[in-house]
Amino acid sequence: MKVIMYHYVRPHTDFANNKSVLPLDVFNWQLDFFSKTGSIIHPADLFVPDFQPEPHQYLLTFDDGLIDHYTHVFPALQQRGLSGLFFLNGKNFVENRLLNVHRLHYLLANCPAKTLETACLNLMEKYPLVPAYKQRFEASVYEGLQQEEIISDIKARLNFFVTPQDQDSILEQLLHQFGFDEKPIMQQFYLNQSQASDMQQAGMYFGAHGYSHYVMSNLPVAKQQSDIDQSIHFLQQWLPAHQPLSFCYPYGYHNSYDEFCTSYLQQQTACAFAVENRPLSEADWTNNRWALPRIDCNRFLPD
């Protein structure tokens, strides 16, 4: 089975340097392509006791609760009688702010890369890189994305190489420095509770994606547990209709979560998804159900 990972799906070209953006026409092409070459399963199928993945199957997953998922993805799925699995955080909704990963996306989309890099480096003189974090992620983050070197460097430094607290502070200061008020941005960036409820009532499934979208392996064990608990609690309060619970690791690289994280999720959820560009096998489902591979949607493009 191929589990496909989506983030932004939109018809316009903002966030042009963000490789997480999939044009809407390509998304529609993918839905047709997946349906012709196999079958797109309903997320509910995962939770049937005797479920086994098969090579011709596709599962569609969508991260971060973006407004794209309501305005563009949801109608396209409904039109075809399909469903997807949508992963929500919580901190952004509770605190009425952008998640740090999206603060950075917004800055990269709206500021010249070199100007942003200079401002970032000046600020980071006060916030040192954590050597253990840098060693853990330096070789793997953004590998093969072919982005501008400056953009990849900024993203690596801010997403992976500083503490979560320093990340908060740096990005808040950068937004202020470039004159952005994130509250009105946030309200147009994510779907809201009513929209998520409409989607759920129409057969879409929702899972947890970490409360804060921090790198789990950069958090102490107690904070990992707290972040997972808060994420699950938020999801169950926001969308009280019962669905079997799944989880998706923020960022999803194999080194972005650790053994504690997977073992704790085994107690709390039915399965968890990571990022690894290969199909999900029967062996994964049997032996590796809390680190299931997903394939980036940009691996499937028309000729």
TrEMBL record:
<keyword id="KW-0732">Signal</keyword>
<feature type="domain" description="NodB homology">
    <location>
        <begin position="184"/>
        <end position="256"/>
    </location>
</feature>
<dbReference type="Pfam" id="PF01522">
    <property type="entry name" value="Polysacc_deac_1"/>
</dbReference>
<dbReference type="GO" id="GO:0016810">
    <property type="term" value="F:hydrolase activity, acting on carbon-nitrogen (but not peptide) bonds"/>
</dbReference>
<dbReference type="InterPro" id="IPR002509">
    <property type="entry name" value="NODB_dom"/>
</dbReference>
<feature type="domain" description="NodB homology">
    <location>
        <begin position="56"/>
        <end position="96"/>
    </location>
</feature>
<dbReference type="GO" id="GO:0005975">
    <property type="term" value="P:carbohydrate metabolic process"/>
</dbReference>
<dbReference type="InterPro" id="IPR051398">
    <property type="entry name" value="Polysacch_Deacetylase"/>
</dbReference>
<protein>
    <submittedName>
        <fullName>Polysaccharide deacetylase family protein</fullName>
    </submittedName>
</protein>
<dbReference type="InterPro" id="IPR011330">
    <property type="entry name" value="Glyco_hydro/deAcase_b/a-brl"/>
</dbReference>
<dbReference type="GO" id="GO:0005576">
    <property type="term" value="C:extracellular region"/>
</dbReference>
